[in-house]
Amino acid sequence: MMKLRMGTGVIVISTALLFLCLPFCSSSVPNDPFFGIAPQDEKYYKSSDVIRCKDGSGKFTRAQLNDDFCDCPDGTDEPGTSACPGGKFYCHNAGHVPTSLFSSRVNDGICDCCDGTDEYDGKVTCSNTCWEAGKVARDKLKKKIATYQDGVKLRKDEIEKAKSALDKDKAELLKLKKEESTLKEIVQQLKEHKEEIEKEEEKERLRKEKEEKEKKEAEEKANEEKSAATGEEARHTNEAGKHSDAKDYAAGETKYEQSDVGDSYDGATDSPSSEGSLLNEVEESVKGAEGEHAAKSETDLRVEEKKSSEEIINTGNDASENTEGLSKEELGQLVASRWTGQKGGKQSGEAEDAKKTEEQEDLTSESNNEEYEGYASETDDDSNRYDGEDETEDDFREEEMILMSSDVVATDNPSWLTKIQRTVRKLFKAVNFFETPLNQTDAARVRKEYDELSSKLSKLQSRVSSLTQKLKHDFGPESEFYSFYDRCFESKQNKYTYKVCPYDQASQEEGYSTTRLGRWDKFEDSYKVMAFSNGDRCWNGPDRSMKVRMRCGLKNEITDVDEPSRCEYVALLSTPALCKEEKLKELQHKLDSLNSQQPEKHDEL
Amino acid sequence: MKNKTQTLPLFFFLLFFNHVYSWKKEEFRTCHQTPFCKRARSRTSSTSTPLVATDVTISDGNLIAKLVAKSKQEETQQNTNPLLLSLSVYQNGVVRVTIDEDHSLNPPKSRFHVPDVVVSEFQSTKLWLQRVTQETLDGDDSPSSVVYVSDGFDAVLRHDPFEVFVRDKSNGNTRVVSMNSHGLFDFEQLKVKGEGDDWGESFRSHHDKRPYGPQSISFDVTFHGADFVYGIPEHATSLALKPTKGPGVEESEPYRLFNLDVFEYIHDSPFGLYGSVPFMLSHGKQRGSSGFFWLNAAEMQIDVLGSGWDAENGISKLPKNRVDTLWMSEAGVVDAFFFVGPTPKDVLKQYTSVTGMPAMPQLFSTAYHQCRWNYRDEEDVEHVDSKFDEFDIPYDVLWLDIEHTDGKKYFTWDNVLFPNPEEMQRKIAAKGRHMVTIVDPHIKRDNSFPLHKEATEKGYYVKDSSGNDYDGWCWPGSSSYLDMLSPEIRSWWGDKFSYQNYVGSTPSLYIWNDMNEPSVFNGPEVTMPRDALHIGGVEHREVHNAYGYYFHMATSEGLVKRGDGKDRPFVLSRALFAGTQRYGAIWTGDNTAEWDHLRVSVPMVLTLGLAGVSFSGADVGGFFGNPEPELLVRWYQLGAFYPFFRAHAHHDTKRREPWLFGERNTELIRDAIHVRYALLPYYYTLFREANTTGVPVMRPLWMEFPSEEATFSNDEAFMIGNSLLVQGIYTERAKQTSVYLPGKESWYDFRTGNVYKGEATHKLAVTEESIPVFMRAGTIITRKDRFRRSSTQMTNDPYTLVIALNSSQAAEGELYLDDGSSFNFLQGAYIHRRFIFKDGKLTSLDLAPASNGNARYPVNTVIERIILLGHASGSKNALVEPSNQKVDVELAPFWVQRKNSPAVMTIRKPNVRVTDDWTIKIL
User: Fold this and answer.
1) Which residues pair with B397 in a beta bridge?
2) Is residue A297 predicted with pLDDT exceeding 50?
3) Which positions 335-394 of B are in contact with A (Cβ < 8 Å)?
4) For testing the chain A interface, which of B5, B18, B794 should be mutated: the one with the most A CBs within 10 Å?
């Protein structure tokens, strides 16, 4: 009450006294020596006659306070004038929020405080607009609080949901991993049997051939053996690859099957330890080879780069010399494009094309990945993604079975896996490996069973991998962003559609052309911003990137997509995930303090 | 997949390639590819046709002569006619020599004389010659004609061999500036095209018909008693011009003067850039300065010849300590001006007496400008504007580049991005700020565009060689170019800036002329074909270098008309020519965010100033590329001292407004901008000095210290006025630098007040806070130490006087102020004070002549603080007279806005009015 009254008093007195200012004195000295001081600081100024500069650089007398001459570089002595560039001026703004202005605003002819106290030298008259402005601000704040109140509830629900979903994911992963290792064992056994059979078959075949063919032909056969050995190497490589990189699995398996034909692998069937060491060896040698290969491919790349750079220089020269071949218009566009970077003449056109090709390929491979990884989301309803692929139907059903079973697992229930185990055991019993010649039906059964189960295994492994990937993501301190996974938010602005897919990518679509604005990077600014980086490269510019600032809202909604710097995008996402309880309390507190000032304001009015 | 790995490196390489090697050297002609230059450059005095002067008379106050081939045989062989020479003399030591074909002999075409460059006032300074004296020079067989110039200078026409020079009588009749001392004069006369004559020239895909054949002119000019030559902007090169030819000189291209839009120009090259001022001045310890100006707007190439270059000819009877130069032009006439000096400031005064004084700028335009290609829409404009307030950084002008228009049609607005341009400008203007929009000379060939329609109907476009409207390519695509050579078209153009015609413009809006070389994307060397036709059948080749100048002139005069002659124009132009200083500011075009470009900006801006174009600067931060924060900060610290202080950036670059690089860098940039705002009163005083004397705001050290040889080739440091010496920091993470401080008097560090000895090189530690700046002992400058949103709100703020005392405890300085925007100062509505500190007493004297018209500029502004650097006494009080007030003297911060600023002796609150006469005595 006191403070506010004093503030109003100041306006009246200073306005009245302005006219008394002598020609000698500068007209911008306020008449209240304590003008422009924040209430919490008044004690500091009133406690003694000699006041210290707050930065400790010196001191000044009461007479020097607000005398329109800067004695403290930090502005301590001139809270009410513009004399110190580093100073701050406090406006009470009764009825609204008090503000602290740069001293550069004092008596600059522009009304900054809604109470008009910053302009007192008589050059302009500022009306007091605090009441109106305050009302607008309070109403806005009330609305915001209402949003927050609903939002906080939504957020809580989301967090609950996210927690149980996460637990489920984790349980599933655990289960899947177990199943994976069991299935792996079975497949391994099948494989051994299959190889045994094939060995026998091969022996049988050789025997027959030996009988039937000449010595010369036998020599040829020796050669075949040699080539079979190479095939074996390949097989190992693939196996190693399978272990190290689940993603290559599918490709690896195809090759594996191919190399199976004519496989004469005959060692290590009986000794798992020796097999293990052999595998290690193989793995190591593969690693070495890979390293070598990598190194080589790097040099290759460099050679290519050099070559292509030479090509470019040539093209560059060509392009500039070939300007003769260009029409006037093309030449104009070409030269203009140097500044604008827009597609114009030949040269930039090529660059653009190169980019496009890259883009397309990138997108294609990505969508492949998506489909592949999308396996994880098979539980959702977009199974149709698999349409058109071989054996989709069967695979899908099997897969469904696997997933369903793993969803409903109860440890004592005989699972699908136990069934399989039983089937395989029966099969092994049925097949007589020492029967010569081999029973063709049995051999075929083993093969078929092997093929089916190893394909099952690969699917299981990919599911494990994608689930592991998912759980690696940062879903926020309270997992409040869990529901963003596998979701996209869209916003249409003019001709563009912006698509923000958290944990994946952000893109801009125009008709059929898609530009990637960034790949998922991370949360920033304590989970207030989602950053997407390394998007498509801009011509003559940086890689595109996007920052999505989030704020509390009741729906997940993208708005205000903007490109403040070329190829650096920003957007706003309203989401309940940002409706934090602490913030709500803060806002309520703010409103309370605003409201508590109102009656006083009314009194004064 | 394989494809991908191949295209990827290729693609990245392409980007890299594009970025680094983008200067398309091969698209521009070398001297060797330019027949007239190749011919002239290979000519020696033995292969030139020697000329002699005959029939010397006085006519209309001029000395008239004929130049004929020495042997009649040559004359008939070459089928040449006598040339007419006219020599006239003007006040203050200016000699003009014109040489043209004899019109009475009916040459096929009259050669082009560049109009509207020499100011009309110049004619009134002509000294009417009454008589000519004949005198035989040492060793000559025939006499020479001598006329008196002024102050002990003669102009001499030596008849045989033909030579023109100015000599200094007080110095044993030694030559000052001479033409054809080496006998390289050559004048290709116009001929009638004969059967089988093929005069056409091709360059790349362009063909130049050259219907009038060879018509070039070349001659040698010698600056005597000179150590270095300077000037002839615009090139990105050193201040002291390096020799381009001669023994021990790595032969380079000559300095080329041909206005061109050069994409990503390199930082050290004699290559021609956006503007051309064929004015050179020399300086030497022995003799001082002299100058030479060739008023000719065709392509020019100038060789600076290394000493001993002519040894093979054995004609070097001339004394050493001279600089020889070779001037070559494709067309036009000889219209040459000799300036006698002898000080650098004298030469500037003489040169600007011919081409005009630099215009007095709008006060706001001397403050900080914020530009970017492009502030995209009204929201962006509002945002950037509010950010300056949020960070308490002053700025005065926000700029809109080409994207603000509707399809690159100038005078229009993109109605999606800028639906309410007037309201936008009003909001900016409410904070005392201004806006600038771009208006380029290419007009979109779009029949729905009224400007194009009208220009077409009126026949106002430049024509191609067949007489049709020339159709070139620029930002809008197919475009035509207004023929700015015509005063009628210029006037019509000027009217387009009226508030009615330029819809959406308000009084706070000013103009930017870009691309006025002119830039033509599909033209030869990215400009207009030389055989394009201007009004009166003038070929573009003859007028090329002045095209942008006429455009700038038309725009500037349009803005004067817009404001009913009451508001000074502000027009920034990229192209320039002699005389540009009368019409507005110049910037050095599309530079790059590299340290070398920061470095070369200093000689570039200094050179522009030496050519009269005082109001100039480089894009702070560098136009192309992204500056590291350190480079950006250093650029602000240096750029704050450019006479024209604007930050600008290409649209592919990252945003770089001052607050985007973290708190510390924001603070450093704010401080750099604050320094400029504090110095605005000093700058404005210097702009007025330029406006009355031609002496530039930013000066080479040797302009202030003409006898200090150590300064002659220094272009890392420069002077602002006669008081401040600024040394740029041009390297990354610099820890220390060397600064040479000229003169016998000492210098005060402008940040700390510490004293440094003169005539010495100082090794200084470099801090991130600022670049080294020193205040010269014996000078006084005025500052305004309060900061506002813009210069507009500073009008009534009080002054700080900084007095740097010399060894005899004395100092002097000036303050000029007026309303900052109108022409009332021409009627005397200004305040001009001289402050003198002597014998412990500071006196303020009125410098405005009493008879300066009736107008007054009334202000109540006071001086709130007087800082005394180097004062001996520890006095506590001072007495203000005549009010007889006692005021305190204390130790107070040198810069109140800086933390930990050292304390210096300060007279506290003298609060004397700047308009009054007073004295303040230290007690």
Assistant:
1) B369, B434
2) no
3) 380, 392, 394
4) B18
CATH number, domain with residue B515? 3.20.20.80
- Examine the domain organization and report whether B326 and B417 are in the same domain: no
Residues B240 and B206 grouped into a single domain: yes
Percent of chain B as helix, strand, coil, to the nearest 5: 25, 30, 45
Same domain membership, residue B576 and residue B551: yes
The domain containing residue B522 runs over which residues?
A: 363-441+482-679
Q: How far apart are CA A2 and CA B147, in angstroms?
A: 89
Do residues B312 and B401 share a domain? no
DSSP B759: S
The closest of A307, A308, A320 to A347, measured between CA atoms, is A320
Answer yes or no: are the C-beta atoms of A232 and A215 closer than 8 Å: no
pLDDT digits (tens, 9 = 90+) for B288-319: 999 999 999 999 999 999 988 875 555 556 67
- Please tell me which of the candidates B13, B17, B263 has its beta carbon nearest to residue A338: B263
Q: What is the DSSP letter of A49?
A: S
Token couple for A360: 């397309």
Phi, psi of B438 (to 5 degrees): -90, 140
pLDDT at B198: 86
Residue A468, CB-side half-sphere exposure with 13 Å CA sphere: 11
Q: Is the pLDDT of residue B900 over 70?
A: yes
B171 shares its domain with B71: yes
CATH fold group of domain A482-584: Cation-dependent Mannose-6-phosphate Receptor; Chain A (2.70.130)
- Laid out side by side, the sheet with A505-510 consists of A489-493, A496-501, A505-510, A513-524, A529-533, A545-552, A568-575, A557-565
Q: How many folded domains does chain B comprise?
A: 2
Q: How far apart are CA B614 and CA B699, in angstroms?
A: 9
- Rounded distance, CA A77 to CA A64, Å? 7
Tokens of B105: 């002999």
The ipTM of this complex is 0.88
Instruction: Kindly report the nearest CA distance between residue B397 and chain A, in angstroms.
Output: 18
Residue linked to tokens 């002291």? B240
Q: Is the pLDDT of residue B646 over 60?
A: yes
- Amino acid letter for position B845: L
Task: Kindly state whether residues B312 and B389 are assigned to the same domain.
Answer: no
Same domain, B339 and B419: no
Assign residue B222 the CATH number of its domain: 2.60.40.1760
Q: Is residue B808 part of a domain?
A: no
Q: Using an 8 Å Cβ cutoff, are B483 and B550 in contact?
A: no
**Domain end (from B643, B658, B679):** B679
In b/e form, how buried is each residue of B696-719, taking b as 16+ CB within 10 angstroms? bbbbbbbbbbbebeebbbbbbbbb
Q: Is the pLDDT of residue A351 over 50?
A: no
CB atoms under 10 Å from CB of B330, counted, come to 27
Residues 339-358 of A with CB under 8 A from B: 339-341, 350-351, 354-355, 357-358
* B334 pLDDT more than 90: yes
Per domain, the residue ranges of chain A are 2-128, 164-314+331-472, 482-584
Render pLDDT for B438-458 as a digit per residue (tens, 0 to 9): 999 999 999 999 999 999 999
Domain presence at residue B549: yes
Around Cβ B205, how many Cβ atoms within 10 Å?
16
Any B CB within 8 A of A21 CB: no
Domain co-membership, B340 together with B414? no
**Structure confidence by residue, pLDDT tens digits, A238-291:** 444 444 444 444 443 444 444 444 444 444 444 444 443 434 443 444 444 444
